[in-house]
Amino acid sequence: MLKKLSLAALVAMGGMSVASATPLTDAIKNVDLSGFLRIRFYHEDNTDKNKATNYYGTAYDRWRTNAVLIFKVPVDENIKFVMRNSVESNVYTTDEDLVKSKNSSVDTTIVNNLLFLQYSNGPVNAIVGKIPVATPITSADPAKPGHGAGLIASYKINDNVTVAGAFVDALKLGTSNIPNTIVIGNDLYAAAAIFNTDMVKGNVWAYKILGLSKHIYTTTLNFVPVKNTTLRVDYASGKNENSTKTHTYYNVTGKYTNNNFSILAGYAKTNEDPGFVETSDDAPIGDVIPTENNSNIANKQDVSAVYGKLGYNVDAKTNVYLAAQAQNAGDDAPNKNNDLKEYTIGVKYKYNKKLGFHIYYDIANWDDEATYADNNEFRFEAKYKF
Is the whole-model pTM more than 0.90? Predict the structure, then answer.
């Protein structure tokens, strides 16, 4: 019978299925679209692959492409539906086991698909559904942020203080650095106070992750002690679910900017007790070191880092910078001989308001090559934001 259906009949049947659909011009009316398109090329030169236990290959190239599309569909002046789609593709130019271990593919894959309701009414703001989870301890990767299903709500008490609370069912992270732990699928509870005064801006958070942590506390404070100078102080402590030990971490960062120059310097330190105070390598509480590949020590045991960065604006569009750090492992670190020296030199260029380019070369030298291999990384990035 299907063979006897005429083209006109098929068209008529298709028309019946969309007879009640909204015309495209009406459907896209007042819909906001934001996001970015990004192309990255990496060249990795891992010179000590045979000495280290975590090598990824002697030398290889990687192409990484991302597209993030965020649609905001207004219902009325208080309610919006938000749909966030993120896709990623990785291509590695090597035929070693790296291809399997990194799950590379030529075709694009969905990184995450978020859909949630956004409510705003005076001092009250909330998102509910499958949501991005932006906290100091979760992934801030714009392509693969921390996310899960749940609710985050905030209430602005006055111009200086806002309180917030969150419940996330099945938290999923961007990049985990919690050793020996599966961190996908755990529930997260959080409460926060965010404040903004003439003297200081900052936030205080308390968290519990079921099955992982008894508690995590974080604090970030930002000061402007003198003109052109900012000072940031971070502190975090956390106790694992089945531990009597409390892991602590703190960081102090100072920055001075004058005309075309900027100078940044800082110091970060952790104690000797095991535990974790964040769930991702790029979590804001710990991702403070300005080198490109080893920018976070918050979950490490008995490790300190001294770091700095010099920046210069060549013109209104071009910035060049040099960053460096020295990590030192103390006597109570799991590997007390595992010190690091790292250097990054880079250039950022703003082609226009939406398109920018970023090139850097990073050199990481570890003292204990049996644990970590030295690695030199070159990266080119083109990013279009809209």
Answer: no
